[in-house]
Amino acid sequence: MTEDRVETFDAIIIGSGQAGNPLALALAKEKWKVAIVEKAVLGGTCVNTGCTPTKAYVASARAAWAIANAHNLGIEVPKSPKVNLKAIKKRKDKIVSSSRLGLRKALADSPQISMIRGTATLLDKTRVKVGSRVLKSSKIFLNVGARARIPEGFADVGYLTNTSILQLEKIPEHLIVVGGSYIGLEFAQIFRRFGSKVTVLEMGNYLISKEDHDTSDLVRGILENEGIKVICGAKCLRGKNKKSGGATVTFHKEGKDKQVSGSHLLIATGRIPNSDLLNPENADLTVNDRGYVEVNSKLETTIKSIYALGDCNGRGAFTHTSYNDYEIMVDQLFGDKKKTVNDRIINYALYIDPPLGRAGMTLSQAKESGKNLLFARMAMSDISRAKEKGETQGKMEVIVDADSEQILGAAVLGTGGDEIIGTFLTAMYGKMSYKTLMNSVQTHPTVTELIPTLLQQLTPVKK
Ligand SMILES: Cc1cc2nc3c(=O)[nH]c(=O)nc-3n(C[C@H](O)[C@H](O)[C@H](O)COP(=O)(O)OP(=O)(O)OC[C@H]3O[C@@H](n4cnc5c(N)ncnc54)[C@H](O)[C@@H]3O)c2cc1C
Ligand SMILES: NC(=O)c1ccc[n+]([C@@H]2O[C@H](COP(=O)([O-])OP(=O)(O)OC[C@H]3O[C@@H](n4cnc5c(N)ncnc54)[C@H](O)[C@@H]3O)[C@@H](O)[C@H]2O)c1
């Protein structure tokens, strides 16, 4: 390969994900000559097979649920609703393609940016191969994301992932979901509300096992109240196609192998980073045993010319963490270099309905920190607005550092929980004393107005 056939850029971005796209635009604004390489469609997981399409489905599922439960609010609906998955998918596809088109236009409008289609591999520390093209830069930004992890025993069975389930046009009769965490639970409730029978098989003893056990139990109750069958402590070993269509899953529980059969099977057992597709060994890039590209708090990898952003660096697994990586990168390149990954407060939502909003530590994590803690919890059923809405499942809780008076963590599982958690998060970023929030006057009637009341109920946690 001769050097004169090599195309040189100020930056090469691999992956058009939640960090790569804004980074390309920011670098172009600084007059850098940028190549952005994408092997599939623009926008990555969030836009195409993650947040956007799933939350569009959550909205359709919520509409179906609201109609089916309207009698609770005194509304008689003569016939049970008909869910038209083809129409739901069409609506979702329209939202997704509009995001993608906006992105394509933004990138195409910049003369500084070359959009290159294909799978990029690293040739060495500064050169990247895409098909027959060789690109070179002293700065390579990896934003390659992750894909569904398929356990060994399922390789030969007809399964769905978060990508293929979004292509269905007929509602599954019985959906088996392997994995009881974010992806599994969101799809479980969506399809239950669309009319499927749903069975969730989770290896751990609790759903969403990173949460406190009482949170997991409440989430399980919400799902079971809608008729979803949840089996925890079920390590799924293998799947087999049924002659009549569908699949049978064999799982190990309480010392025995058991089976469950369904018309469709969704595998939601976590993600693996796409770093393997890059041939990282060619650049001596350090990838850990789970496939994540190792970075420091400034997103620098072990190789001076290479940076890693988003899910592939293992420092976050959400759209907002990937986008924040982009903000950190820009600050490190052009700003005052103060932003780092270490400053980020963990936060996310689980978009079942009602949703779980989370910020900072769980109670068990806070206890492990050894700090003097204050804690308060209230049931959603004690909150007027929740009662008025007829949506009283869930809880609100907060953990405070008794010495600094700062909030260490909060959870809002209940109506509006995904939005309400932002109030706690803002106080945490502002390093505010909990008393400021406790003395604030919030709007009535909202669920948020319970935050001051909740904080008045703080009591010390025994060590
Ligand atoms: C079903 C589901 C629902 C989700 N819901 C939420 C949610 O509600 N909220 C939230 O915050 N997060 C959610 N997430 C997580 C979120 O989608 C990701 O954290 C987010 O997309 C960040 O990804 P990224 O920027 O790291 O990369 P991605 O968005 O995954 O983009 C990586 C891109 O790199 C490309 N690529 C990979 N390898 C190569 C290569 N060698 N050459 C060229 N291109 C390559 C890929 O094709 C892809 O387009 C969800 C995820 C899933 C799967
Ligand atoms: N609302 C959101 O923000 C959202 C929504 C969906 C996905 N995501 C992102 O996607 C990532 C992946 O989500 P996920 O739910 O696939 O993965 P996860 O890693 O959170 O959970 C996987 C689950 O599968 C279980 N499991 C693994 N192997 C199993 C087996 N053989 N049998 C039974 N159970 C098994 C695990 O115990 C675990 O509970 C998350 O980390 C999250 O960041 C976020």
Automatic annotation (TrEMBL):
Disulfide bonds join 46-51. NAD(+) binds at residues 179-186, 202, 270. GO terms for molecular function: flavin adenine dinucleotide binding; NAD(P)H dehydrogenase (quinone) activity. The keyword Secreted does not apply. InterPro entries: FAD/NAD-bd_sf, FAD/NAD-binding_dom, FAD/NAD-linked_Rdtase_dimer_sf, Pyr_nuc-diS_OxRdtase, Pyr_nucl-diS_OxRdtase_dimer. FAD binds at residues 55, 311. Its cofactor is FAD. The keyword Flavoprotein applies. This is Pyruvate/2-oxoglutarate dehydrogenase complex, dihydrolipoamide dehydrogenase (E3) component. It comes from Algoriphagus aquimarinus.
